[in-house]
From TrEMBL:
Domain of life: Bacteria
Name under which the protein is recorded: Protein ImuA
Gene3D superfamilies reported in the protein's UniProt record: P-loop containing nucleotide triphosphate hydrolases (3.40.50.300)
Lineage: Bacteria, Pseudomonadati, Pseudomonadota, Alphaproteobacteria, Sphingomonadales
Organism: Sphingomonas guangdongensis
Length: 247
C-alpha cells in the first residue's frame, strides 16, 4: 500500500472517532512524587514529543521500553495510533500494561520516513489521545515537525527509538523528554517464584529541568508504575513492610 493510500485510510478511521468530546489535560503525571517533582510540567506534557529507548539492544530492555510506552498511552484519554515497521507487538502484553486492544489503531509503514509522516498526520488530527511510532532514525527536522504537530493537536507523541548503529538517543532531537528503560531485578518473594517486574528509568534529558534515575515496578493493568515495596520480614516494632505508592 502506498504512503498516500495509508494516510487516506488513516484519515477515514480518524474521522470515525472524531467529535467524542474527550477532556484534555496539560500533563500526564506518574503520581510518583520523586518522578513528577523532577519533571518541569509535573508529568509528561500531553502536547509534546517524548522519546524512549531500551537501555540496550536486548529483547528484555526493548520489551520494557515498549511496555513503558503502552502504560503511558493507557493513562491518556481515548484512541491510540501505534505506527510500526514490523509486526512484533503482542496485544495481550500491551493489555497487561493497561492498553486495551479496542483502543489501538495500528498502522504499518514501509520505512522510517513513511512512519514519521503517518505519525505527523495523526498528531494533527486532534482526535487521538496518543500517537506512538517505532524508528531507528529520526533527524532533528523530523522531530521538530512531530513536536510542532503535537503542540498544534495537543496530542502526546511517543517515539520508540530502536537500537541500530550507535546510541539511539545520541542524535539531536526536539523531544521535550528522553528516557532509557532497562530491566532490573524483580522483588524477592517469600516463596519460590518471580516477583513483579522492575525497571530502571533514566530521564536522560528534558527541556527546562534536570535528569534523574529511578527503580520502579513495571506497569500494572491500569498502566501505572509503582515504587518498589519492601518485601522482607521485619518486626512490627520496626514498622513492617513499607507501603507501595502506585502511579
Amino acid at each position: 500500500m502506498s504512503q498516500t493510500a495509508v494516510i487516506a485510510k488513516l484519515r477515514e478511521e480518524l474521522s470515525a472517532i472524531e467529535g467524542r468530546g474527550f477532556r484534555r489535560r496539560p500533563a500526564l503525571p506518574f503520581a510518583l512524587s520523586s518522578v513528577d517533582e523532577a519533571l518541569a510540567s509535573g508529568g509528561l506534557r500531553l502536547d509534546a514529543l517524548h522519546e524512549v529507548a531500551g537501555a540496550s539492544a536486548s529483547m528484555g530492555d526493548d520489551a520494557a521500553a515498549t511496555l513503558f510506552l503502552a502504560g503511558v498511552a493507557a493513562r491518556a484519554w481515548g484512541p491510540v495510533l501505534w505506527v510500526v515497521r514490523r509486526r512484533d507487538l503482542f496485544a495481550p502484553g500491551l493489555m497487561q500494561a493497561g492498553l486495551a486492544p479496542e483502543r489501538v489503531i495500528y498502522a504499518e509503514a514501509a520505512d522510517d520516513d513513511e512512519l514519521l509522516a503517518i505519525m505527523e498526520e495523526g498528531l494533527r488530527h486532534r482526535g487521538l489521545g496518543a500517537v506512538i511510532g517505532e524508528v531507528k532514525r529520526a533527524g532533528l527536522s523530523a522531530t521538530r515537525r512531530l513536536q510542532l504537530a503535537a503542540e498544534g493537536g495537543r496530542t502526546i507523541a511517543l517515539l520508540l527509538k530502536r537500537h541500530g548503529k550507535g546510541d539511539p538517543l545520541g542524535a539531536p532531537s526536539a523531544a521535550v523528554t528522553r528516557w532509557r528503560v532497562a530491566c532490573a531485578p524483580s522483588a524477592p518473594l517469600p516463596v519460590a517464584g518471580v516477583g513483579r517486574a522492575r525497571w530502571r528509568l533514566e530521564l536522560t534529558r528534558q527541556k527546562g529541568g534536570p535528569g534523574g534515575e529511578w527503580i520502579v515496578e513495571a506497569c500494572d493493568d491500569t498502566g501505572r508504575c509503582a515504587l518498589p515495596a519492601q518485601l522482607v520480614d521485619r518486626p512490627a516494632a520496626a514498622g513492617g513492610a513499607a507501603s507501595r505508592h502506585a502511579a
